[in-house]
Amino acid sequence: MHSSSGPPPSRRRVHAPPQESGARLLDPPLEPTADAPAQSIETLVDNNRLLRAAFDTRIGDLKLWELVAATRREVLTVATEYTASYRDVDRPVDVADWIARPMVMGGHQPELFHPGVWLKNFAIDAYARRLGGTAINLVVDTDRCTSTSVGVPVGTPHEAHLEQIPFDVPAAEMAWEERGVVDADCFASFGSRVDRLLKPLEPDAILRRWWPLVVERAGESHRLGLAIAQARHMLEARMGLQTLELPVSELVRLPTVMVFMGWLLAHAAPLHEAYNAALASHRRRYRIRGRARPMPDLAVRFDDTSSTPWLELPWWIWSRDDPRRRRVFANTGTPGMLVLSDMETLRVELPISPDTTPSRWVDALSRMEEHALRLRPRAILTTLVARMIVADVFVHGVGGAAYDLLTDDIVRRLTGCDPPRHAVATGTLRLPVDQFFPGFSSDDPGTELADLHHRIRDLEFHPECHLAPHDTQPEAVRELIRQKQRWIDTHPTPTLAKRRCREIRAANDHLAFHTQALRSRMLNRVGPLAAAVRARKVLQSREYPWCFFSENALKSFLLLEIE
After folding, report:
1. Binning pLDDT at 50, 70 and 90, where does residue 559 land?
2. Which residues pair with 108 in a beta bridge?
3. Under a CB-based contact definition with an 8 Å cutoff, are residues 209 and 234 in contact?
4. pLDDT of res. 401
5. Is the dihedral of CA 111, 112, 117, 119 positive or negative?
6. Cα–Cα–Cα angle for 60, 62, 64, nearest 5°?
7. How many CB atoms within 10 Å of residue 240?
8. In angstroms, rounded to a whole number, what is the distance separating the alpha carbons of residues 101 and 406?
């Protein structure tokens, strides 16, 4: 374990998703370009393997590369078994060669995500094919199931809004791995209910044909998230993908992963310090104010049960009886022992410390599982595990790539070594509104509304500019305009400044009487234009689930990546 000060983080590109519908971002690209021949997935894998080989960190009695080889064998075996439980899988005959080949990994929560997120699954497949390796998608079922409804766009370019349609009734907040289907009728009818609302914008959404498969998988898996993920993965197989999948809840039960988790827990204090120091450095670097962004610091607590502090660690803990995800605090005051607690009702003593053996770490964490206690890594720790001891390349979306700058810094502070680099894949696909409302893409109510607000403001301060020609105005109006101009031309001395301002305002107020009709016409246009701006924002969103689109639109967006 190295000093927590660590070297300064290297510069990494921060990406933004493309704005044009159908556009994709892949870094590195599938094919090297003439401008950047070194930017290729092959180069990234080679460099990552060199970075990993440079680690002199020992995990218990193993060198890092030894743990990596054992973990990859377990991950490939269990991912194959899990995937084969619901779809056909090709099992390589030469297992040693299989393990040695490059492994590309990505991951996301088992929710109805947008096409730009789905593109990652096609990207890892395409990268793996190019490398002659294996692609594995992690189903992040350890994250919270925060909502069981999706927003469906309803309306026209003049007035549109989101209508929230549930695929299950609300329930107590819990991780996806614990969440079953509560209302089977609501779940079964979701596809047809959404399809009816979508028809004016997308009459052939793939959802209608795909959702029955989700319902079927719910009957087999008994988990809402796994039903969505498995049905989506089965569709990917029909599209030609050869990826494996593995829930994070299964990944963390693997003995080799428990060894790595045990090592991190055994170094609770350095991990806590490295995490908070990386956050502080990130905030300074990007000039972020507020200690809750991009996420809160890990806390320190004191109580009467121990003379040493309780350090918050980047895990979640819960029990089968009470599946609320809670923060984890660790106390190292007892030699050879690590005490974990949620500082509420859960408390467990584990024989985990730098001086205990990895086999004891695994036994302790296994017993927690046997007693229905869940200890699950937070997002940063999940990708840290994947990047450090499993994948040759981890593929992030834009958001994950930004957060993993923190992971890079944490690894450097803990080990003194540069971590393997990640890839980035994302894209944008919007509903085909132009097909049903011609001219939608060329209309710009936002610019028109901004211009209208400018004109209304100008009407308030320069009403004379909006009147009929000067020589056609009544004498009283022309005199008001002359008086205003005289005061404008008057130098604002300290004695006259206040009076000058009052007189100009008074002239504007009197002239406003003659612009009332024009002002009313302008104000009457504000409401419809504002509604059109809101409608445009609704209809142009890139966040709608991939299953809201037609199969042809999805294929043109996704399958080009694996041709």
Report:
1. low
2. 139
3. no
4. 86
5. positive
6. 105
7. 11
8. 28
